[in-house]
Specification:
This protein is of the alpha+beta class and 127 residues long. 22% of the residues lie in helices and 35% in strands.
Length: 127
């Protein structure tokens, strides 16, 4: 009787791991070191140590850039969800949560590199 109960317990244990949920079966679309997410328009790769800033303000009102939140290290990649151009400043890349990185005056030359996903990656994401 004990052997039968042990066998049933072990069978149920292994069966619980073999059943997968819909979330587990969804395949991640990787793009470099980051997962491609809906709403993402690109990514930035940090080339030289730079700052992450908290930005507040609407598109029509004044934008306030606060003190740096933390340092971003070379080799890190961040998803980009939008951009802002402030008169007299280089482009700001929205990395989510109201946080932005500031591009240098020359695109893709300097402390970060901005890239957009390929159409093939976007097609995989939109399936």
């Amino acid at each position: 009787m004990k052997k039968l109960l042990s066998f049933i317990f072990i069978a149920l244990f292994f069966f619980s791991f073999s059943v997968s949920s819909p979330e587990a079966s969804a395949q991640k679309i990787m793009w470099g070191k980051t997962e491609l997410k809906p709403g993402q328009i690109g990514k930035v790769t940090i080339l030289q140590s730079t700052s992450l800033f908290k930005v507040e303000g609407g598109t029509s009102g004044p934008v306030k850039i606060f003190d740096p939140v933390r340092r971003l290290n070379p080799g890190e990649e961040y998803r980009v969800y939008g951009t802002k151009n402030i008169q007299g400043y280089a482009p700001l890349y929205d990395v989510g949560g109201g946080y932005y990185v500031i591009q240098s005056a020359y695109l893709n030359i300097g402390h970060l590199m901005y890239e957009t996903p390929s159409k093939a990656k976007l097609n995989l994401l939109n399936r």
